[in-house]
Amino acid sequence: MASNQLTIGSRGSKLALFQANWTKSKLEAAHSGLRVLIEIIKTSGDVFLDAPLSQIGSKGLFTKEIEDALLDRRIDLAVHSLKDLPTVLPAGLSLGAVSAREDVRDAFLSNEHRSLEALPNGARVGTSSLRRQSQLLRLRPDLEVANLRGNLDTRIRKLDEGQYDAILLACAGLDRLGYQHRIAERLSIQQLCPAVGQGALGIEIRETDDMTRNRLQCLHHAPTHSAVTAERAFLRRLGGGCQVPIAAHAWIEESRLEMLGVVASTDGRRLFRDQGSAPIEQAADLGVQLAERLLACGASEILKALSAP
């Protein structure tokens, strides 16, 4: 690979390509003479579009094929929505940079209703996420939650066709693609605690590729990295992937790291929630400690039931 050229591996969706092109523009602006290419790679998550994500496996669903290309040296870096990136990376790969976070909240979209609270009893809400489903049913057990797959445009089209009364999506993706006007309500993290890493980009590289790692420092945001380090340690200790009903959000407040963690049953009837605080340099320890507190309170029973055959 030429020293003045980098190749980004990306999924082919409009959002994934927006994120890859954003990374390309930042790198080329920061490094004179650097040429950045984008190679589109189809992942398992892009192929199996009908079944719920929770039924086709979660770990590496949107990343494995891209990681294989990294290990084979067909690409130099991979741009992921960090919430899709497993907490344990394949041997030989590492996280080279974490971008500054966009809005971490979940968005409520509806053409007829202005808020989640305004939905009538029995309304049909679309989501592909067990995390969203479990917390939504905790708030509104009267609602019908239905599977919603496809890229962002497809999901919005299904709402517009009347297949759902409302859908839930990440604010960050809608904001990045200019769909802010479609958001009826931005749900607070107390209503729906976000996915681990939500709103941030994770840029994956080969562990030994110091040149690429150094070039990526123009994209790296240390406060976000500290926050997602805590969140990913929390998820790793619980043993979950991106499609398990586990949620966490960490943020810096007065030079300390604060963190909220949630584990819920898929029907929302059981939900464990706790919050912790630690010095920023103890981010990973905070995530592990919060996970262990939830496990001790009974969250382990939920996770065992989900992993049972």
Describe the fold and architecture.
The chain is α/β, with parallel strands linked by helices and 309 residues long. The chain folds into three domains: 122 residues, 3-Layer(aba) Sandwich (D-Maltodextrin-Binding Protein, domain 2); 82 residues, 3-Layer(aba) Sandwich (D-Maltodextrin-Binding Protein, domain 2), CATH 3.40.190; 89 residues, Porphobilinogen deaminase, C-terminal domain (Double Stranded RNA Binding Domain), CATH 3.30.160.40. It is built from nine helices and 13 strands. A five-stranded mixed β-sheet has the order 2-1-3-10-4, sandwiched between helices. The longest helix is centred in the C-terminal third of the chain and has 25 residues. The chain starts with a strand and ends with a helix. About 2% of the residues have low confidence.
Please state how the strands of the largest beta sheet are arranged side by side: 2-1-3-10-4
> Any idea what the radius of gyration is?
19 Å
User: How many extended strands?
Assistant: 13
- The CATH topology of the largest domain is given as D-Maltodextrin-Binding Protein, domain 2
Q: Proportion of β residues?
A: 15-25%
How many angstroms does the end-to-end distance come to? 45 Å
Largest sheet: 5 strands, mixed
Count of DSSP-assigned helices? 9
In terms of per-residue confidence, which ranges show pLDDT below 50 for 5 or more consecutive residues? 53-57
Order of helices and strands: EHEHHEEEEHEHEHEEHHEEEH
Helicity, as a percent range: 25-40%
Which outline best applies? globular
Global structural class: alpha/beta
CATH class of the largest domain: Alpha Beta
Overall pLDDT level: 92
Q: Based on the coordinates given, report the CATH architecture of the largest domain.
A: 3-Layer(aba) Sandwich
